[in-house]
Design brief:
16% of the residues are buried. This protein is an all-beta fold and 191 residues long. The chain contains no helices and 13 strands. It has a 5-stranded mixed sheet, with no helix packed on it. Strands 2-9-4-7 form a 4-stranded antiparallel sheet, with no helix packed on it. Strands 10-11 form a two-stranded antiparallel sheet.
Length: 191
Amino acid sequence: QLPQFSGYACVEIGLPCSEDRYEPNNQIAQAVPINFGDEVKGIICPQYDHDHFKVVNVAANTTLRILLYDLPADYQLTLYGADGGLITHSSNPGTSPEQITYTTPSTGTYTVRVAPAYDAYHPTRRYTLRVLTGVTKLSYLAGPPGTRVRVKGEGLFPGVGASPAEVMLYLDKVAPGKELAKALVLPNGTF
């Protein structure tokens, strides 16, 4: 007669990964092209997944603003240059949004990586990635010294969770470091 044992075992049953239309994109060579302003809804799954995206033909002296938000877990954001070398990264704790602002020194393709911090991932919830660019254009009605000047701006980055955003106007040739005015930035990036 065989001895009898009683007890229990813990078995972890994981959810399968949701479909990710951007896969495969785990390597820089597999980076998926995206356009400025696209709202990418990606997923980090399975564990240790990395997602790469690229913005092609970025002109020199373009200011990139890369936003990673709606995070279901602790993810990090990394930017690689036209030469493939590491430029910078953003690594905030927990599910705090990540952001990189960078002005390109040369024309080329820039790659963005979304990666888990340690072993963070989520099989069903998606993050949001946006790559924005902006050339701030200021126009004004000129007048003789001492007259009022009307200023209009466009091309500012629409805020993510920044409501309301403000812009401060300076005229350093007239009054270095002195703020001349404040204006609220509208959701479409104008003031």
